[in-house]
Specification:
- The chain is mainly alpha-helical and 282 residues long.
- The chain has a domain of 90 residues: Tetratricopeptide repeat domain (Serine Threonine Protein Phosphatase 5, Tetratricopeptide repeat, Alpha Horseshoe).
- It is 73% helix and 0% strand.
- The chain contains 16 helices and no strands.
- The longest helix has 15 residues.
- The model has no long low-confidence stretch (mean pLDDT 95).
Length: 282
C-alpha cells in the first residue's frame, strides 16, 4: 500500500503527496520521518493544496522536520486560510489576536478571520469570536451577536460555549433573561466536567434562583468545581463546612478548602482562616 502511495505521489498528484507526507509523519506502514513528511507536504503545498499548506505551517511552527521559523509558518497558514481552510483561518485569526507571530495585534483582523472559520461551522472559531465580540476587546462590543455564536457552538456540544451561553441567559446580559434555559446550558456543560458551569450551578442551588434551593446540591457542585481548582468554589465549600449547610459541620475541612483557595489568590479565604483559628484559641 505504501509503495503504491509513493508511486502515486511521485506522479505529481497533490492529494497523494499530502497523504504520503501524513504517512511519514504518523509512521503509517513506514518508519516515521518528519523530514520526509515536510518534503511531500511542501510539494503538495506548492501546488496549492490547503491541507498541505496548513501542515507545513505547523511543521515550521513546531520545528518538526524543519528548522523552526514562525514567519514562514504564518505565511503557509495565511495561504491555507486564503484558500478557505477553516482551521487555517482560525489559526491566522489567533495570530492577529495575540500579535505574537510577526504580525501586530489587530482585533478587527482576528474577528474577520474567525468569522470566516465560524461561517464554516468551526466550533472553536464560534466560541472565540463570541468572546471577542462579547468583551469588545479592541473592537466594538456586540453581545447579541456574540451570544448567537455561542449558541451555535453550544449546539455542537462545546462546553465552554455552553457555560458562557448559560451565564448570559441566567443573568440577562446581552439577551433576554431566561433562568431555566441558562440552567439547562450549565447542566450540559457541567455534565462534561466544565468547572465554571459546576460552580455556577452550585451558586444557583445555594440561592434558589431559578430552581428550588438545595444546600446539599450546592455542595455537590461546588465540590466538583473545587476539585478542579476554582478558588471561589473552594471558598464556598469551606463556608458550607463551617456553617454545616448541605454537609456536616467540619472546621478542619473548612480550613483545608480555604487554604486551597488562598493559595490560588482568593484573599477572603486566608482572612477566614485567621478568624477561625483565632476563635479556636480562645
Amino acid at each position: 500500500m505504501i509503495e503504491q502511495l509513493k508511486e502515486a505521489a511521485r506522479s505529481g498528484d497533490p492529494m497523494d503527496q499530502f497523504r504520503l507526507g501524513q504517512a511519514f509523519f504518523l509512521g503509517q506502514e513506514t518508519e516515521k520521518d518528519d523530514g520526509q513528511a515536510v518534503v511531500w507536504w511542501r510539494r503538495a503545498a506548492d501546488q496549492g493544496l490547503p491541507e498541505a499548506q496548513y501542515n507545513l505551517g505547523q511543521a515550521f511552527l513546531e520545528g518538526s522536520g524543519v528548522a523552526q521559523d514562525l514567519k514562514e509558518a504564518f505565511g503557509w497558514f495565511s495561504r491555507a486560510a486564503e484558500a478557505g481552510l477553516a482551521l487555517a483561518q482560525f489559526t491566522v485569526g489567533g495570530a492577529y489576536y495575540s500579535g505574537e507571530t510577526f504580525v501586530e495585534r489587530d482585533s478587527a483582523k482576528a474577528a474577520e478571520w474567525w468569522a470566516k472559520a465560524a461561517d464554516q461551522g468551526l466550533t472553536a472559531a464560534l466560541f472565540y469570536l463570541g468572546l471577542l465580540l462579547f468583551s469588545g476587546d479592541g473592537l466594538p462590543a456586540d453581545q447579541p451577536r456574540a451570544i448567537a455564536y455561542w449558541r451555535r457552538a453550544s449546539e455542537q456540544g462545546f462546553g465552554l460555549a455552553q457555560t458562557n451561553l448559560g451565564s448570559a441567559l441566567y443573568t440577562g446580559v446581552g439577551v433576554k433573561q431566561d433562568l431555566a434555559e441558562g440552567l439547562g446550558w450549565w447542566r450540559k456543560a457541567a455534565d462534561q466536567g466544565l468547572a465554571m458551569a459546576q460552580h455556577n450551578l452550585g451558586n444557583a442551588y445555594n440561592t434558589g434562583l431559578g430552581l428550588p434551593a438545595d444546600q446539599a446540591m450546592a455542595v455537590h457542585y461546588w465540590r466538583l468545581a473545587a476539585e478542579q481548582d476554582v478558588a471561589e468554589a473552594q471558598f464556598n465549600l469551606g463556608v458550607a463546612y463551617i456553617e454545616g449547610k448541605g454537609v456536616e459541620r467540619d472546621a478542619a475541612q473548612a480550613i483545608g478548602w480555604w487554604r486551597k483557595a488562598a493559595d490560588l489568590g482568593f484573599p477572603q479565604a486566608m482572612e477566614n482562616i485567621r478568624l477561625l483559628e483565632g476563635e479556636q484559641k480562645h
